[in-house]
Amino acid sequence: MRDRGYLFQCTNLKALDTALLSSTPTSPLSAYLGFDATADSLHVGSLLQIMILRHLQKSGARPVVLVGGATSKVGDPTGKDESRKMLDDDDIGNNIKGISKVFETFINFEEDNEEEGQPKAKMVNNEDWLGGLKYLNFLRDYGTYFTVNRMLSFESVKQRMARENPLSFLEFNYMILQAYDFLELSRREGVQLQLGGSDQWGNIVQGVELTRKVDQKQVFGLTAPLITTSDGKKMGKTEGGAIWLNADKFSPYEYWQFWRNTADADVARFLKLFTEIPLDVIEKLSQLEGASINEAKKILADEATALLHGPDCIASIRETADNLFASKSDGAAGDTSGLERVVLSRSDLGTAKAVDMFLQLKLATSKKDAKRLIAGGGARIVNEQITDEAYVLREEDFVDGECVLRAGKKRAGVVVLEE
């Protein structure tokens, strides 16, 4: 974990290392990772923590994934400029279903893998213990273990209080609820380790201290560094919006292209963090320079995409990427099977604006963004540039019932003409 770049802070690294080395197939160390159900998909910014949990399971630890059915009703204020939107039970239930798909891809919940010594993982919901808490009893039993002075000392709270929007008392309670989650999971599941991003350090430390004070148990907190790209931007944020992990929100082809477009300076680091390629192989790939580094980028894209969407999609994606932008005498764009698609009724020909199609294909975040794309010369139908912001799709734009719209050099989508 150290050599791949996963370690940032730990409450007691030496003792945790000893506990991990003492883990056995019959008594594995349990580590938990929590996610609130604030959306129906996780995004690539969550992937680092999931990869850590995956590595731990492959090394013999037992993953416990916590979905915050209860804490999603409060909202973690960490790193946020304003309060989260309030969600009802139906929204949270649907979101839990959406994010669970990703965990089931990376983590083994089904059965023990005796050959590799991977203990079975478990998914839990903090609604099971937070939902029935009695407020006065909770305050009396646990409120004395928290001081406002200590809570105000954490950087995550300081940052929020310095922002324009106030920190509500509801959100201020989030840290206490997360700390109590750790105590409950220690009791219910024998959890000894909580994982999180560096911005979660304050919340995690409170849980470690609460468990020690109440139950006299040693548990650990481990955070990973905040991942930024070489140009200083937060990992996973693009002009087109979030890089979602669910295929219905972000296609496997788009996901592959996201990794393929990694900056040269980030390739070796991302290979360590987001793939399972051995470190000695990554070291050789990191020596590539110039045009040769594109091969390392393709390997990164292949491996990261195969982990999320399965290896069977890679050949089709590669073919689409290789052929998409090749000029053909008949105007066709090669294999487009991996691209995002929208269907256009034949009756809408002559009135369907290209601007709207770019928006529907998620090649633009708004009509204004699509118009900027056209004005900047980055909008094309296959290889023909679109110069008019009011351009409407016509019969002649379609080849074999498909019109390929391109945004820049590497993003594209297909408008399919209804039969």
Overview of this structure, please?
This protein is α/β, with parallel strands linked by helices. The protein has three domains: 9-224, 3-Layer(aba) Sandwich (Rossmann fold), CATH 3.40.50.620; 251-323, Orthogonal Bundle (Tyrosyl-Transfer RNA Synthetase); 340-417, Structural Genomics Hypothetical 15.5 Kd Protein In mrcA-pckA Intergenic Region, Chain A (Roll). The chain has 17 helices and 13 strands. The strands form three sheets. The protein has a six-stranded mixed β-sheet, sandwiched between helices. Strands 9-13-12-10-11 form a five-stranded mixed β-sheet, with helices on both faces. α9 packs across α10 (201-215). The chain starts with 8 loop residues before the first strand and ends with a strand. One of its GO terms (molecular function) is RNA binding. One of its GO terms (cellular component) is cytosol. Keywords: Aminoacyl-tRNA synthetase, ATP-binding, Ligase, Nucleotide-binding, Protein biosynthesis, RNA-binding. This is Tyrosine--tRNA ligase.
